[in-house]
Amino acid sequence: MKAQKMLLIILFVFLFVCSAAIVSAGDFDWMRDLNIQAWADADGFRARLATRFQIGDARISAVLGNVSSPADAYMVFRLGEMSHHPPEDVLDIYKAHKGKGWGVIAKQLGIKPGSQEFHALKRGCDLGGDFGGSRKAGKGKKGKKRQMD
User: Fold this and answer.
1) Whole-structure pTM value
2) Cβ neighbours of residue 110 under 8 Å, at least 6 residues apart?
């Protein structure tokens, strides 16, 4: 009987922890799609980063070599732009806090939860084309179809 109660408690705690992780990951779920697209067209992704952030290939390579995924590289450049910090500073914060999520990293850079900048991050990336990364491609806030550009 005690073993069953203990197993039930462990299962409850496990489910609670997993659900919390899923909820927090939902804010940046567009990153999964961005990674898939970037891995499918690595050269196109690099070209979009270079154009969007006006940076050279050496800087792109340096960031991509220090993050876990292409979407993480995009976030390093985007957060640097939003917070007026160089990508190297963002990388330092990323390395120190990457297990805590992008919301924590943004906050460390002075981007407050609930701010316009934070909401822009949650909506998706702004690379355009196949790398748009919007949360629900082609849909607005209430599921209404948006006109595609």
Assistant:
1) 0.71
2) 83
**CB-based burial, 35-74: b 16+ in 10 Å, e otherwise:** bebbeeeeeebbebbeebbebeeebbeebbebbeebbbbb
Q: Token digits for 106?
A: 């943004």
Distance CA 112, CA 60 (A): 26
> What is the predicted pLDDT for the residue at 34?
95
Going from N- to C-terminal start, the domains of the chain cover 25-131
Within 8 A by CB and 6+ apart from 143, the residues are: 136
Q: Can you tell me which residue has the tokens 């980063």?
A: 49
Q: Which residues of the chain have pLDDT under 70?
A: 1, 3-27, 129-130, 132-149
What residue has token string 């450049």?
Answer: 77
